[in-house]
Amino acid sequence: MSKPLVSIVMGSANDWEVMQQSARALQDFGVEFDARVISAHRSPDLLFDYIKDMTGQGVQCFIAGAGGAAHLAGVVASFFPLPVIGVPIKSSALNGLDALFSIVQMPPGVPVACVGINNAKNAALLAIQILAASDKGLQKKVGEYKKKLAKIITEKNIKLNKIGIKKYLKGGKK
User: Fold this and answer.
1) Which of 53, 81, 96, 162 has a CA that sits 20 to 30 A from residue 114's CA?
2) What is the mean pLDDT of residues 79-96?
3) pLDDT exceeds 90 at position 102
């Protein structure tokens, strides 16, 4: 197995339900990754050691998912010299807005990219595009993926125009 290029960290094992979207997308593109449950609040020393270890192994990007106060992405960014992408996880109390605000409102000098609430797939796609900046093979895969998305939308548009909006909205989308 190759060394990981991306690390997925989450503050709680419960976050895996969302964060597995990142793992699947990275697998689909053939990008090696590591995944861990490490809390910025409950295990800060473990997190610090893990970030140092992953930096030494050549990880190029972190994807950090957390809910609530969601300090995980910011703590990772404070120690990791390369891109960090935060995934706000929906919580029951504030529906993920607390995590979203926590991740996007980083202080100057500690940038964290942020995707939508529970949108771990986009976090992986952003990480892949970051890696693709220096990897022609990944650039090609991303281009093919985007063409596939365009084809899907084109086919849906054709179907919509063929059967009409009323039928389409009643379940004829597929």
Assistant:
1) 53
2) 94
3) yes
The structure tokens 């990981």 sit at: 4
Q: What are the Cα distances from residue 117, in Å, to 2, 41, 55, 85, 147?
A: 31, 21, 27, 12, 25
Q: For residue 107, give the DSSP letter.
A: P
pLDDT of residue 171: 77
Q: Provide the pLDDT for residue 142.
A: 98
DSSP states of 52-106? HHHHHHT--EEEEEE-TT--HHHHHHHH-SS-EEEEEPP-TTTTTHHHHHHHH-P
Question: Of the candidates 4, 13, 21, which has an alpha carbon nearest to the alpha carbon of residue 39?
Answer: 13
pTM recorded for the entire structure: 0.92
- Look up tokens 């990897």; give the residue: 135
What is the tens place of the pLDDT at every residue in 43-75?
Answer: 999 999 999 999 999 999 999 999 999 999 999
Residue 27 parent element (H or E)? helix 16-28
CA distances from 59 to 3, 5, 137, 167 (A): 8, 4, 18, 48
% of the chain at pLDDT higher than 90: 86
Kindly report the backbone phi and psi dihedral angles of residue 63, in degrees, each rounded to the nearest multiple of 5, phi listed first.
Answer: -115, 120
**What backbone torsions phi and psi does residue 160 show, to the nearest 5 degrees?**
-60, -45
